[in-house]
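A reminder from the course coordinator: this example appears on the midterm review sheet, so study it carefully.

Given structure:
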């Protein structure tokens, strides 16, 4: 590691434009400022949010050059002034939805897991303390941050509110998945829905987040977990993790919600929309049981299209809510999830489908584009 307080030169995968191959090059990483931490990334992975940002699918994601990535684990290299809950050498996981612990949101107990300052913000591309970047390329040009983390680099600087210290005995490669996908899906089942033994669930979209919902419902003892996906290959992975039934909308001649109502005595207790598709969201809503069903939105919807929902449909007792980061308060609650993973209560191995060295990051992107991977783990050491 470089001397503390000094600029570090390291490799990073830099995005210079939408859809362009990432450029693995040397960048300069400044030391952490007040309430910031510089970490050495050991593992990082790619999710569909990174893919969407790389494509430039929304205005919020079009700041260039930029270092993407928001799922990662590593060790603390140095800490800035005021950081007291972490020290050099601590194992940490980066989180995009931070927790300062001091604001009215963070002190709200179970009302919200958002933070006044460090909640997820796709428009934010600089550090909170001074509005500047901590990265520069070889020409001295500032490189923008992404989702408060920027993990496609050997070293990154993040606000301490966006780092979670975890058990030093935890396997860091697996802990990487807690940065986003697994926590989001599993938390939606545990926290947002609070699935109970014997209840029924439908999951629309069996990517990593959807399968994490399946894992969460399985650990809670759901009696029926229906997986819905247009890719027939998702049935195999879904059954390995815990789905009890599978529906391919292309293979049935009735709307999906009608099929689910038929399979679940009038509808499931909870449905989870993980596809980012408006029509799929409506089907998820209608697939829940009259009187008490809840549809949970997890998919990212970048288009300006609005949900087709008549207010009177809500008088049937069905509800629709969204879940950010699985309603986990990252710094205070993620260590417990890590413990559950270490104890084997939550199984993470099925989510890691590929492993590649960091310099093959563009190959990892292609695997996700082609629908061949759930999580490709990139190792930087």
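Designed residues:
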């Amino acid at each position: 590691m470089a001397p503390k307080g000094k600029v570090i030169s390291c490799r990073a995968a830099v995005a210079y434009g939408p859809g362009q191959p990432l450029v693995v090059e040397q960048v300069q990483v400044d030391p952490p400022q007040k309430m910031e931490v510089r970490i050495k990334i050991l593992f990082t992975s790619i999710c569909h949010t990174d893919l969407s940002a790389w494509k430039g699918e929304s205005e919020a994601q079009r700041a260039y050059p930029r270092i993407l990535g928001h799922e990662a684990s590593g060790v603390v290299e140095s800490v800035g002034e005021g950081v007291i809950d972490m020290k050099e050498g601590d194992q940490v996981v980066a989180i995009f939805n931070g927790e300062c612990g001091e604001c009215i949101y963070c002190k709200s107990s179970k009302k919200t897991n958002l933070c006044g300052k460090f909640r997820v913000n796709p428009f934010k591309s600089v550090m909170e303390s001074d509005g500047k970047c901590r990265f520069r390329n070889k020409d001295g040009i500032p490189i923008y941050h992404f989702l408060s983390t920027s993990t496609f680099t050997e070293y990154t600087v993040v606000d301490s509110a966006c780092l979670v210290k975890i058990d030093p005995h935890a396997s860091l490669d697996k802990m990487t998945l807690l940065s986003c996908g697994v926590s989001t899906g599993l938390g939606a089942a545990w926290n947002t829905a609070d699935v109970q033994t014997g209840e029924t669930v439908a999951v629309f979209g069996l990517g990593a987040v959807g399968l994490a919902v399946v894992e969460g419902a399985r650990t809670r003892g759901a009696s029926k977990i229906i997986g819905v996906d247009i890719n027939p290959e998702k049935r195999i992975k879904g059954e390995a993790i815990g789905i009890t039934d599978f529906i391919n909308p292309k293979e049935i001649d009735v709307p999906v919600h009608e099929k689910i109502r038929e399979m679940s005595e009038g509808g499931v207790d909870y449905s989870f929309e993980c596809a980012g598709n408006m029509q799929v969201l409506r089907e998820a809503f209608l697939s829940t049981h009259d009187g008490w069903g809840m549809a949970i939105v997890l998919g990212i919807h970048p288009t300006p299209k609005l949900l087709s929902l008549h207010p009177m449909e809500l008088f049937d007792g069905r509800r629709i809510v969204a879940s950010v980061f699985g309603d986990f308060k990252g710094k205070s609650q993620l260590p417990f999830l890590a413990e559950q993973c270490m104890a084997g209560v939550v199984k993470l191995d099925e989510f890691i489908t590929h492993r590649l060295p960091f310099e093959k990051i563009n190959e990892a992107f292609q695997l996700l584009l082609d629908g061949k991977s759930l999580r490709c783990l990139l190792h930087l050491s």
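The chain has two domains: 8-179+348-379, 185-323. The longest strand covers residues 36-45.
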